[in-house]
Design goal:
The complex is a heterodimer of chains A (about 375) and B (about 400).
Chain A (H helix, E strand, L loop, with lengths): L6 H17 L2 H7 L8 H9 L18 H13 L6 H15 L2 H13 L4 E4 L13 E4 L2 E9 L7 E7 L4 E7 L4 E4 L10 E15 L1 H39 L1 E2 L2 E2 L4 H26 L6 H27 L10 H13 L4 H13 L4
Parallel strand pairs in A: 1-4, 2-4
Antiparallel strand pairs in A: 2-3, 3-7, 4-5, 5-7, 6-7, 8-9
Helix pairs in contact in A: 1-4, 4-7, 5-6, 5-7, 7-8, 7-9, 7-10, 8-9, 9-10, 9-11
Chain B lengths: L2 H20 L1 H4 L4 H18 L17 H11 L10 H5 L1 H8 L3 H12 L5 E4 L15 E5 L2 E12 L6 E7 L10 E7 L5 E6 L8 E12 L10 H9 L16 H10 L1 E2 L2 E2 L4 H29 L10 H21 L16 H13 L4 H12 L20
Parallel strand pairs in B: 1-4
Antiparallel strand pairs in B: 2-3, 3-7, 4-5, 6-7, 8-9
Helix pairs in contact in B: 1-4, 9-10, 10-11, 11-12, 11-13
């Protein structure tokens, strides 16, 4: 089972690429690395104006009723342009959690704001290496949350967070307002992602789902986010491949373009293979939303996209030689993003285990 | 059900009915001669059922259907281990080229029908000891001889030449011009005087490929299938014939399920190997790679069905799949430890890890080596420059040997 993009979807890809190329430049992205607590506001304004925040949400709550395929196309372009704001994925994950598991009241309360982008959402499940910990770092007592979540993507700016917590004797998925939560910005190698530690203390929270279903729900939300992130990774990898190619046909050494040397051309051809495998897995995974093999497809997309982006950015720098490691050229923006995206939404180790669990029917 | 799905269902049912007579179990223990005899009967049965020459024109005895039906049938057929590979080259390249470039249409039709029914086999005489990746560097020559030509030289890696009735061949007819321009394309009778076929035994123990020697082999000018000096273009047309063939994300080795089973059944340091992180990582990464290839193939099929041209990413299949099959097979043997020494040279490469492993190097070379494929991707898809070629524009007989 696979899909071909239709005309409308192709138009989304073309238009989002055009808009992002016009509005996001590396000159704006570089300074963001040197301070913490700032992100690319122009990108977020663009995302809101273009309706990307509303894209995959239901019409009944001010959404556009499109799906993962369309949002994936935009994420791919955002990855190419290093959009510099984490919210496209985190907002979507938080909104989907409320849409899929919330009550009518909860949906009415949160979804329109998340759809317009006026409310910024975060998803906070992980505890260090564990994307879905056996013992979550937060405890829900009554309707109050306590504990510290570390390294929450978009955590510094988010208005609400969907969290995975210990409920009374069972895990629980809940949504909390962050207005009174103490936040500490993390000095990161990719500062514009607004990573923060969140300290919950008697914080009001509303339950979305409890018990075994909460863990399944959390995995499903992670998988949805992973597919979006994988598209972003594939887009970044594709950009690195093109930058490497363009340099290899222009830069000359020993009387010929360096792209004529097999050590260079084969390296770029290998990246092409990784990018295309990742892209194919991403498109497939996006088209499997709602099907029984969705988690498996999401894991495969995540694994191949992580490998593609890391390898492409690593090799692109190597192909450039000395100029590749300068601050100004900005290749490091991709190197940084490749690694930050590799950790967000569950690391490679997590998704490898999820995939093998699915294939074998047993957990390690 | 779409037309194509209906076609698939019908083909699958027919193939299923052939399993008792021609399937894996029926072929077990047969000598190669007996297997080939069985293969000829199977090919005839395919022809009679309308599954031979599926996408070929009806005027030559084909079925006149589309490429999609052909790939669909091949995909279903691959599941059963039928002896169809003896005809793979013959029906894959030489016969389609013959249909396209053969002058005597009545004679061509006779050959096509015989080949489709498994009565005649054709081989493709391209590679030489000095011209493999560099096809245009070949040295076998044809000189004018009366009204025809006289061939002298040697070909190598010729699949099924020892069973072939005819072959298509590229030879040098003019050494005084740059290498691509001095080649001409012919067909030859493999039983003609002066043709000697010598099988080459490969690492896996089988001898599907041959050296073929030509000593004063005389052919008429009516054997010529290209203008004199225009053989390279026809050779390239031959190699381009089937860009989208039925592919296999397992690299024509075992399916990943078999590795998962092995890992479940094998104990490593007192625990099932499936619990070992190194094993799990390889399973996960192989799955991701294979599912990517499958998605690329599925999209290519969908594009063809929609009347569009698939993207170039279909060219990744062999490069990526065979290489990873080689590594996974190594790991599977490692995993068996001292139980891993056993080797049965009749075992199937698709079911046996050792057989898969020992034959994998052949897969990485035949049909374009990894390096050749990477060059093709780099140059044709990504627009990177060609390698430095010192023989460019130099007359063939002035290229330093």
């Amino acid at each position: 089972m696979s899909i071909l993009y239709d005309e409308g979807q192709q138009a989304i890809a073309t238009e989002s690429r055009r808009v992002l190329e016009a509005r996001v430049s590396k000159e704006e992205l570089l300074p963001l690395l040197e301070t913490s607590g700032r992100y690319h506001e122009g990108y977020w304004t663009t995302a809101k104006e273009q309706g990307w925040t509303a894209l995959a949400l239901p019409e009944a709550y001010s959404g556009l009723d499109l799906g993962l395929v369309e949002l994936g196309l935009i994420a791919h372009q955002a990855g190419r342009s290093l959009s510099g704001a984490p919210f496209l994925t985190s907002n979507f994950g938080a909104a989907k959690a409320i849409e899929l598991y919330g009550t009518e009241d909860q949906k009415a309360k949160w979804l329109p704001g998340l759809a317009s982008g006026e409310t910024i959402g975060a998803v906070a499940f992980a505890s260090g290496a564990n994307a879905l910990p056996a013992r979550p770092a937060l405890t829900l007592t009554g309707e109050r949350l306590d504990g510290v979540m570390t390294g929450v993507s978009a955590g510094l700016a988010a208005d609400i967070a969907v969290v995975f917590a210990n409920g009374p004797g069972m895990p629980v998925l809940a949504v909390a307002e962050l207005a009174d939560v103490k936040r500490t910005a993390i000095a990161s190698f990719d500062n514009s992602r607004l990573y923060a530690d969140l300290e919950f203390a008697d914080t009001p929270a509303e339950t979305l789902v409890t018990g075994g279903a909460a863990r399944e729900a959390a995995l499903h939300i992670l998988a949805l986010q992973a597919v979006i992130t994988a598209h972003e990774q594939a887009g970044g990898a594709e950009a690195m491949m093109e930058i490497a190619r363009d340099y290899a046909v222009t830069r000359r050494a020993f009387g010929q373009p360096i792209g004529a040397f097999q050590s260079i051309k084969h390296r770029i051809a290998e990246i092409y293979g990784l990018v295309e495998l990742a892209r194919a897995n991403c498109i497939h995974a996006a088209s499997r939303e709602g099907q029984s093999d969705f988690i498996t497809a999401a894991a495969a997309a995540r694994i191949s996209a992580t490998e593609a982006y890391d390898t492409a950015s690593r090799d692109c720098v190597q192909i450039h030689g000395g100029i590749g490691v300068t601050w100004e050229l900005g290749l490091h923006l991709h190197t940084r993003r490749a690694r930050s995206l590799a950790i967000e939404q569950g690391n490679l180790l997590f998704w490898e285990d999820v995939l093998v669990d699915r294939l074998t029917g047993e957990a390690a | 059900m779409s037309d194509l799905e209906a076609y698939r269902a019908k083909a699958a049912a027919w193939l299923e009915s052939m399993v008792p007579t021609y399937g894996k179990a029926a072929r077990k223990g047969l000598s190669e001669a007996d297997d080939l005899a069985l293969a000829r009967k199977y090919q005839k049965a395919k022809f009679d059922a309308g599954y031979a020459g599926i996408n070929w024109p009806t005027e030559f005895g084909g079925q006149g259907k589309g490429h999609l039906e052909k790939v669909t049938f091949d995909t279903e057929e691959m599941k059963h281990g039928f002896p169809s590979f003896y005809f793979g080259i013959s029906l894959g390249m030489p016969i389609p080229v013959l249909m396209q470039f053969g002058e005597d249409k009545a004679w061509v039709k006779e050959r096509v029908l015989k080949a489709l029914q498994g009565e005649e086999i054709w081989c493709q005489l391209f590679s030489e000891p000095a011209g493999g990746s560099d096809l245009a560097g070949l040295r076998t020559k044809a000189e004018p001889d009366g009204n025809g030509w006289k061939i002298n030289g040697q070909k190598v890696w010729t699949s099924w030449a020892h069973y072939s009735d005819y072959g298509v061949i590229v030879v040098r007819t003019d050494p005084n011009v740059p290498k691509h321009k001095g080649l001409t394309y012919f067909w030859v009778d493999m039983k003609a005087p002066g043709v000697t076929v010598r099988p080459i035994k490969l690492v896996g123990g089988d001898s599907h490929v041959n050296e073929v020697f030509f000593d004063d082999v005389k052919i008429g000018d009516d054997h010529r299938m290209s203008p004199v000096g225009g053989g390279f273009a026809v050779a390239i047309a031959t190699l381009m014939i089937e860009r989208y063939v039925a592919t296999d994300s397992a690299g024509f080795g075992p399916h990943l399920d078999l590795f998962v089973e092995l890992a479940k059944d094998t104990e490593l340091n007192g625990k099932p190997a499936i619990e070992d992180g190194r094993i799990r990582q390889q399973i996960a990464r192989n799955y991701a790679m294979r599912s990517g290839l499958q998605s690329i193939t599925a999209r290519a099929m969908a594009m063809m069905q929609a009347g569009m041209t698939p993207g170039p990413e279909g060219s990744l299949n062999k490069l990526v799949a065979v290489r990873s099959r080689q590594k996974l097979s190594e790991l599977a043997i490692d995993l068996q430890g001292s139980d891993g020494f056993t080797y049965d040279d009749h075992a199937s490469q698709k079911e046996d890890w050792t057989s898969s492993w020992i034959n994998a190097p052949t897969g990485r070379i035949a049909g374009g080596s990894d390096e050749t494929l990477l060059n093709t991707i780099a140059e044709k898809i990504l627009g990177l420059p060609q390698d430095h070629r010192p023989d460019k524009g130099v007359p063939f007989n002035q290229i330093p040997a």
